[in-house]
Known about the structure:
Layout: E1 2-6, E2 10-17, E3 29-37, H1 39-49, E4 53-61, H2 64-75, E5 83-86, E6 93-98, E7 104-109, E8 132-135, H3 140-153, E9 156-161, H4 165-170, H5 175-184, E10 187-190, H6 192-199, H7 204-215, E11 221-224, E12 230-235, E13 238-242, H8 255-269, H9 274-289, H10 300-309
Parallel strand pairs: 1-4, 1-8, 2-6, 4-5, 8-9, 9-10, 10-11
Antiparallel strand pairs: 2-3, 6-7, 11-12, 12-13
Helix pairs in contact: 1-8, 3-5, 6-7, 8-9, 9-10
Amino acid sequence: MKVLGLGTAAMDIVLQCESLPREDGFAFVHYESLFPGGSCANVLVALARMGVDTSLVAKIGDDKYGEAFREDIVRSGVCARYLFTRPGGITLHTFVTLAPNGARAIFCHLGDSLLDLAEDEVVPQMLQGVKVFYTDMFPGRPALKLARLSRELGVRVVFNLECAPSFMQLCRVTMAKIEEMISLCDLLCMSREGLFELTGVEDPQVAGQTLYQRYRPTEGIVSTCGTQGAIWWLGDKTSIFAPAFNIQAIDTTGAGDAFIAGLIYAYFCQEMGRQRALEFANACGAIKCTQLGARFKASLEEVNSFLTRNNQ
């Protein structure tokens, strides 16, 4: 089983505080650390930990953040053959303020490398032997090119609309491009923020059904709703729900990425039923919340043990 991902590659500077500062306020930083991140990279690293053959398509700078990212992605077992470097470039990096209860705020320095990946740098050979193409559309044009090629080659497409469309447009990903990607994908994954912005409906159940009726992706739409669990819409009036696990969260950064990795592994790689796949994905997300940093650090055995302990 091989999964190819195109999307964000980043380093996260995590600042652990006693609480998040209010507007015009301040907070003491008790601990500062550097962690590898980037949503797409997080998904692929988690899949690699589950034994899946993964490759990342992205562009980084040749700065200290880019060097640290490349070293980690290779060490994590993800193929870096398509990880391009922009000479003199600045790698995407974030500053994450983190409170003891897991609450966070993220400040993003986009840099000049991630969105520099060009259409002509992605080629059909990248999809050779690939079963699933995963993308968060950063950047948009190369992602669409690989999605179109995936459709032609019978490769399943999973699109994670992790950021609200208004934010993506700031990164040169227009609504027209987003809608084209939705039309090309088999499975659409979304945050509650994205659901609300696309539908104007606050109730996630109603918003999901509204969005499904509009786009009708082959494998439906999945959304994580934090402590409320996750929902998978499959038809006009058909959905599957899996409740969240009760855990003591210390860092929610990357929880959605771990969830998606678990979903891809369970549903596409292991061909589990949708209900079981959703529960497995929830377990991956929950475990990540108990770990510091954006990356999922558990083994497949630990996920299965977690499910057993929680009677699922």
